[in-house]
Amino acid sequence: MTRIPLAPRRTLMIRLTEWYSRRTYGAVLDPGAAIAHNPRVLRTYVRHELSLARWNRLDPTLKALAVMASATTVGCSWCLDFGYWESTRRGVDPAKLRDVPRWRDSAVYTDLERQVMAYAQAMTATPPEVTDEMVAGLRRHLDDAELVELTMMISVENSRSRVNSALGLTSQGFRDRCEIPA
Fold this sequence. Notes:
62% of the residues lie in helices and 0% in strands. It is mainly α. The chain folds into 2 domains: 12-54, no CATH class; 60-166, AhpD-like (Up-down Bundle).
């Protein structure tokens, strides 16, 4: 159960945000509904997310795996649910997304993908456990712009996951929409 109601006072801005969310995602996103209790925070959050969506230097699979590894480390079921759905919509291999919680033992990943998930987990740890060797390994495959985008996406997901977990937001059923029925 959420720790905050998901039905704030319905101002024009909130109604527009809900409309956009339904149109884009098929549902009102719980984090948006929770954050809507503070209109200034909601406006900043929406602008921030729209800006992030335009970042495109990093390979989409690497970005998705980093985001999912960070969400797994924090334990945010809402982020894992939505991240799986959103990433499969963008063409990321569902097998790779499913195996993120056990990436060290899975055979579906490349060496670079493993390095990205290790980096994401190290960044998400408290305190961070990133080493010079991790960054040097990533720099053999990524240019500076890609490394910065990777680092920022992990940081952003860390924030999302911690906010959602703190507010008690759990899976909203997005993943169920993209699984092939048995």
